[in-house]
Amino acid sequence: MKRITSFGILASTVLGFASPVLAQTVFVSTQLRPIEEATVVRQDLLKDAGKVDYVVEEPPQFAVRMEAEAKAGKHTVSLIGALHGELSPLADKDQLEPLDNLAKKLAADGMPQSLLDLGKLGKSIQQYIPWMQATYVMAAKKEALQYLPKGADINAITYDQLIEWGKNMQQATGQPQIGFPAGPKGLMARYFQGYFYPSFTGGVVRTFKNADAAAGWEKLKALWTYVNPNSTNYDFMQEPLAAGEVMVAWDHVARLKNAISASPDDYVVFPSPAGPKGRGYMPVLAGLSIPKGAPDAAGATKIIETLTTQKIQLLTASKVGFFPTLNVQLPPDLDKGVALLAGAVTKTQAAKDAVISLLPVGLGDKGGEFNKVYMDSFQLIVLQNQPVGDVLAKQGAVMAKLMTDTKAPCWAPDAKSDGACPVQ
Amino acid sequence: MTQNRPWIPYLLILPSVVFLGLLFIVPLVQTIWLAVSDDGAPSPANMQRMVTDINFMQSVRNTFLLTIVVVPVQIAIALAMGTMVAKIGRGRETILWIWTIPLGISDLAAGLVWLSILQNTGYFNSLLFSLGVISRQASWLSYQTPVALFIAIAVAEIWRGTAIVMVIIVAGLNQVPKEFKEAAEIFGAGPWTRFWKITLPLIRPALQSALILRTVLAFEVFAVVYALGGRNFPVLVGEAYNWQNQNQNYSVAAAYAVLIMVISLAATLVYLKAFKVDPERLP
């Protein structure tokens, strides 16, 4: 009897300690990682979503963690928040729960069917629920506008005008005033894939080494003479903008937000420049997904429902600068900086010459090496001044091998392919 | 007692041997296999990929250049510091304590400290500006100023890594018997002769340890370079990190790791040969 009693005490103690831990739904996200943003998620966005343990992971570690949990068969993560391209390898390995019921409900609540379809990742069942979206824009200090070339419309700027603008600013201030996030953690590779290549070649992979690409690189070299050389150290452009190191910058909206929200009256925000083939633009879509074997799928569903309510979607926009996936009007009392960014996003989407470039898909864990091809070309051509043709031929071969190894088919704006996307 | 049971010493070191075997030898073998195989079969593909990468030659050159410049300077400074404190009576401990402060700071923190000094809006530019030397922010850490960047990294590394060399050398200097110097003084040897003929040969084991430790660490330099130079100054460990973390190619990262290990082992062997230490002076 005594033994049973002590066993009972022990068991209840263990359960007493264990149950609060079990009740936490683990939500791992590659988005909203900086400490300020993660705090907003924990304190504001997930306030009504029950007990959630919001964990952030860098994209490479995220892939490793999901792979490890799937291989070990021991799941701790109940909900994933990640980019379209980061969720796609998981869907390919059949590691995500179907979310069709949720998708139906959200379609009725006003989530555009086109966005929901992206969440199917090319399959017949819903793999993820679109969570929030963003893109990349340019921002400039208002004092830079006086150097804008005559007749240039800031909302429809071209590469030639940007180069002239950079030249004017350099002559007036004695310093190169344009900045790009080409540092170790900067998103410069996305500039090449979503903006530079589509603008100059109308493609990303197929056109990698053609004559249009070579001409584009020559233009970029011309532009780079007016780009601050510290750009290869910049990760987030909001810092050099706020510190006055550059007057004009290109970056992800969330990586410009702090500078612009801090003094919205000092900035203008506008679409990226257009090249001969149009105005390249990369929509960024983050989604929510439940991994197969999730310990708390019910809790995860509840979090998805919370995060996709109109109220929380608008709160997300005003607090962290990612825009709603629900079809909602942004309120008039929105943070002024976010309103500026939202305006530029709308102008980009509405631009007549916009060339949409999707995030790379189907590359699996070779996404990093795909980025490297663009960054290596940039380093060799622009920073080391090597002949464009030779570099593109060599890097084109590397890219062709990458595409055949991964068998990734072409994505927009490249024309569709049967099998691996060819480098022509 | 040990003589009756000769297995006792082996038993005592067994846990550490097992520990090393599990946590060092096994991953080491795995890393080497990862570097020299492709799809489960032996292949030089990863090594080739590493050698033909655009940053490979530069990272080898930068790493060696940094080692060649930093290590001798650190040894010289540490010898000077060690000899200086040897003359001090009161306050010696305090001075040593202050000198070893950089030891307590992590590599990355040290890099960030120097970044705050040397970046465009940093203290160094502010100072130059207030003295009227420069009229606007100058950049010292960009790809267009490789010499300034190299000097900045070397200075930061010297600042950060000299303390450990000094600790080893001070320990070595403490072991040099006073009688030798006094005898030399009586026979009329000057300070330079005493240092060259007595002190230096007697601290040989300490010098050897310091050189091996510092050189191996110099080949593994990363955090300071990453903080100050980012992508602008490729080094071997930095490339291993990029391949592992950003490019997600563990095999090429393993190839870099193996290369760094081979270089470190080679350097250690060179020092062991070059600084022969009498067997009776070994611990």
TrEMBL record, chain A:
It holds the Pfam family SBP_bac_1. The keyword Signal applies. The lineage of its organism: Bacteria, Pseudomonadati, Pseudomonadota, Alphaproteobacteria, Hyphomicrobiales. Keywords: Periplasm, Signal, Sugar transport, Transport. This is Extracellular solute-binding protein. InterPro entries: SBP. Residues 1-23 form the signal peptide. It comes from Rhizobium tropici.
UniProtKB/TrEMBL annotation, chain B:
SUPFAM superfamilies: MalF N-terminal region-like, MetI-like. Its main location: membrane. The keyword Thylakoid does not apply. It is a multi-pass membrane protein. It holds the Pfam family BPD_transp_1. Gene3D superfamilies: MetI-like (1.10.3720.10). This is Multiple sugar transport system permease protein. It comes from Rhizobium tropici. The lineage of its organism: Bacteria, Pseudomonadati, Pseudomonadota, Alphaproteobacteria, Hyphomicrobiales.
